[in-house]
Amino acid sequence: MTLPDPDAVSRREFCKAAVALGGTAGLSACLGRDGGADDAWNDALDRDDAGNVVPPTHHVLRYVDVDRGDATRAAARERIEAALADLERTFERSPAGLLFTVGYSPAYFDRLSGVLPASVDLPTPRPLTGLEDPSFDEADALVHLAADEPAAVLAADEALFGEATAANGVRVTDASDLFDPVDRRTGFIGPGLPREHRDADGIPDDAPVPEGAKLFMGFSNGFAASQATEDRVTIEAGPFAGGTTEQVSTLRTQLDAWWSQESHAQRVAKLFSPTHADEERVGEYGERLGDDPGVADLPEDAVAYAREEGVVGHAQKAARAREDGVPRLLRRDFPTTDGDHTGIHFLTLQESIGDFVAVRDAVTGADVADETGVGSRINNGILQYVFVRSRGNFLVPPRGLRALPDPDPRGQP
Ligand code: HEM
């Protein structure tokens, strides 16, 4: 039995063939193809009763520049790979242990000789709407650390970037001198956490955020039917096949009016759709939705709908960007109180940054604003409450290339 051309089939198909082949050849072929969009973590994450993926609770985003000092590129690469492999030995690859991804920015690749292959769509970040004036995250790399236990995230953070020489009692190769910290952002996602943190700015201290809600806006997100599959977000061809692209929009939310002026029905209409509000489809915080928020059958009408209802829902608009009925983004966003203010680190994985831009255009809904009485912000989903602070784009390479990849990694030692 022979293995298919890894560039010609999906990762899942390839690994299925590798399993059939078996033995060390199969294993190493599969590991070689592993990582990347597997870093989307779905296989390692739990499911709730309805079948929705449960993201890890605690998150750290470490933005770093790479500073090799006197180290050769090969030596620096080796040391970073050793540090990451040590972390994997130290923690189980699960929310109970530690999950992480490593992404590289267009600015990182631009500084190196060689160009990224055409199969990687990784433009420099830019403003995506007329309503924003963001800063751009152009640090070389973004390391996303996530775990249910805050101590695990902190230990990994300290071992990779701080003074610690061990995590969880296990020695971790010191690569901290190779990284210059640029920024550190944090957040959390889980029922009860927004309610617990409503003393932050940007939300009334007594906002009636339901106990079950995962978001400061009072609802849950990330329902299975509205998420892209790992296959959909995997780069299919070329030397970075098996990888994925990652974008992070750091969004600030201003929810005083959301909680003091809107009724529950208005909140449902703006976040999901007016139909969801009329038919009471959502429940207190989303518990009636199961694994499907049921927005796929509404979006075609968004413009007519907005004209008629005077309001259009956020999820309803976003679903217009589905391709052949299938969502393009694997959203891994989580709320934050960085700077003691409510917000969301809106982190998504997708095959190309173009996929993200298309979805963001659908969310902005300029067509809805132009063609109806609905404003560019007011009654146009949740735009009135959300402010873009920064945008960044990254490539999460497949596992074998996760330490300082060259733009054209063919021939890279
Ligand atoms: C404060 C910011 C945001 C909040 C609170 C929020 C909340 C939600 C909620 C509750 C849903 C429906 C349930 C589900 O997730 O399955 C949803 C769906 C969605 N949102 Fe957001 N969202 C935010 C920002 C964004 C942004 C900036 C984008 C894209 C650029 C986006 C893209 C999507 C997409 C693609 C869907 C699924 C649509 C589909 O079913 O195809 N969201 N969002």
Order of helices and strands: HHEEEHEHEEHEEEHHEHHHHHEEEHHE
Most strands sheet:
6 strands, mixed
Molecular shape = globular
Structural class, judged by helices and strands?
alpha+beta
Cα-to-Cα separation, first versus last residue: 29 Å
Number of helices: 14
Mean pLDDT rating: 91
What is the share of helical residues?
Answer: 25-40%
Topology, number of strands? 14
> Beta-strand percentage?
15-25%
What ions, cofactors and ligands are bound? protoporphyrin IX containing FE
Round the Cα radius of gyration to an integer and report it. 22 Å
Contiguous runs where pLDDT drops below 50 for at least 5 residues = 23-36
Overview of this protein structure:
The protein is an alpha+beta fold. Among the domains are: 1-34, no CATH class; 192-397, no CATH class. The protein is built from 14 helices and 14 strands. It has helices at residues 11-21, 23-33, 73-90, 106-110, 150-161, 193-196, 230-233, 256-260, 264-271, 274-278, 302-309, 314-318, 353-364, 366-371, and strands at residues 46-47, 53-54, 58-66, 99-104, 135-136, 141-147, 166-167, 170-171, 179-188, 244-253, 330-331, 334-336, 343-350, 386-396. Strands 5, 10, 11, 12, 13 and 14 form a six-stranded mixed β-sheet that branches. Strands 4-6-3-9 form a four-stranded antiparallel β-sheet. It has a two-stranded antiparallel sheet with strand order 1-2. A hairpin with a 6-residue loop joins strand 12 and strand 13 (343-350). Helix 1 (11-21) packs antiparallel against helix 2. It is globular. The chain starts with 10 loop residues before the first helix and ends in a 17-residue tail after the last strand. The model is unreliable at 23-36 (pLDDT under 50). Bound molecules: protoporphyrin IX containing FE. Protoporphyrin IX containing FE binds at residues 215, 217, 219, 221-223, 226, 249, 251, 253, 271, 293, 295, 314-315, 318-319, 322, 327, 329, 344, 346, 359-360, 363, 386. The site of protoporphyrin IX containing FE has 26 residues, from strand 10, helix 12, strand 13 and helix 13.
